[in-house]
Specification:
Blueprint (H helix, E strand, L loop, with lengths): L6 H16 L3 H7 L3 H7 L4 H31 L6 H9 L3 E8 L2 E5 H17 L7 H31 L5 H15 L2 H11 L4 H23 L1 H19 L4 H8 L10 E5 L6 H7 L7 E7 L2 E11 L2 E9 L4 H11 L2 E3 L4
Antiparallel strand pairs: 1-2, 1-7, 3-6, 4-5, 5-6
């Protein structure tokens, strides 16, 4: 019987074999130690050319962007295009049409805003059956385009001043007004249909208009309540009141100084009922006896001096002298004169 092989010897040989098979070659080891740079060099990609390639790509992109901006700029400023592709481009690139107390980068109104307002106006006139392609229509449209630029500038002035006064419009305020309008109009679908028919607006567009309206109203209230803006009007009203107290004729002073349509009739407003005038005016008018003259009464319209000339049942006959304080319209005119306004686009 043959002898069993030497187990120890076989084991050693086997281990040596396995060790030889599993031991990494110097070549494999060198591959593992290659850096990323060496690896990409090995397949023919070199570091420096890649960096140059990236620069070339970036420069190419910048060049294309500049050319694109320039091309659309020509379509905007020279040809005043309102094509679909220009409308899309103007949403991405805010081509300025005007700036107020700023420059082309901030405090600006954009061409996209201009196109939106223009489309709204054109849609409205079309819905009313008015042709803007006739000679007369084109003249009207030219004036409307100029008015749009002015309105965009005014919006910027209002926004800037609203920030100074700390005026904010909340989503809740906008939603409440929208809900009220929906209720009065007969439902959401009716509102959507009307907005689209008259202006081509979405509900979101309409809510943006509500936001602007609420902001203007709040600003108007702030302006009226600003004593620094209303001091001269208040002083004039007080001077007139002193003249009346000294025996001057109310009607003659009304003809001379009152700032509304009743001036020609000596301030006579005729018979009024409760609910016809603003609360501040009404509260004083209905508290006076015939022949009595009030002190200075401030309302959203300015400063009033009220005289009751008679009573008939639940009505009173009143006259007044109105001295207008600072309102949004007069304030805007003053602000436009003071502001640095630059127009980049001539419609």
């Amino acid at each position: 019987m043959p002898k069993d092989p030497d187990i120890k010897s076989t084991s050693v040989k086997h281990s040596a074999k396995v060790s030889k098979q599993t031991k990494p070659s110097s070549k494999a080891k060198s591959v593992k130690q290659l850096s990323f740079k060496d690896k990409i060099s090995k397949i023919g990609v070199k570091g420096k050319p890649k960096k140059k390639a990236v620069i070339v790509v970036v420069v190419g992109i910048l060049a294309i962007s500049i050319v694109t901006i320039a091309v659309f700029g020509v379509l905007v400023y020279k040809y005043k295009s309102s094509s679909r592709v220009v409308k899309i481009a103007s949403k991405i690139i805010p081509y300025p049409v005007a700036s107020v107390n700023g420059n082309v980068l901030w405090n600006t109104a954009s061409y996209n805003q201009y196109l939106f307002e223009l489309a709204s106006i054109q849609k409205f006139y079309e819905s009313q059956g008015q042709d803007l392609t006739t000679q007369e229509g084109k003249q009207k449209l030219d004036q409307l385009k100029t008015d749009i630029i002015i309105q965009l500038e005014n919006n910027l002035i209002i926004q800037q001043q609203a920030q100074k006064y700390g005026i904010k419009v909340t989503n809740k305020e906008v939603q409440e007004q929208y809900d009220e309008l929906v209720k009065n109009a007969g439902g959401v679908e009716k509102v959507k249909s009307t907005l689209d028919k008259l202006y081509g607006w979405t509900v979101a567009d309409f809510k943006e208009k509500i936001t602007q309206s609420v902001m203007q109203k709040k600003l108007g209230e702030k302006i009226l309540g600003d004593e620094s803006l209303n001091g001269p009007a208040k002083k004039q009203a007080e001077d007139i009141k002193n003249q009346i107290s000294s025996g001057a004729d109310f009607a003659e002073l009304a003809k001379k100084f009152s700032a509304d349509g009743s001036a020609s009739s000596g301030g006579d407003l005729g018979l009024i009922s409760k609910g016809q005038t603003v609360p501040e005016f009404e509260g004083v008018a209905f508290s006076l006896e015939p022949g009595q003259v009030s002190g200075i009464v401030k309302t959203e319209y300015g400063y009033h001096i009220i005289k009751v000339t008679g009573k008939e049942g639940e009505q009173v006959r009143v006259s007044h002298i109105l001295i207008k304080g600072a309102d949004l319209d007069s304030w805007l005119r003053d602000q436009r004169a003071k502001s640095r306004i630059v127009q980049y686009f001539k419609p």
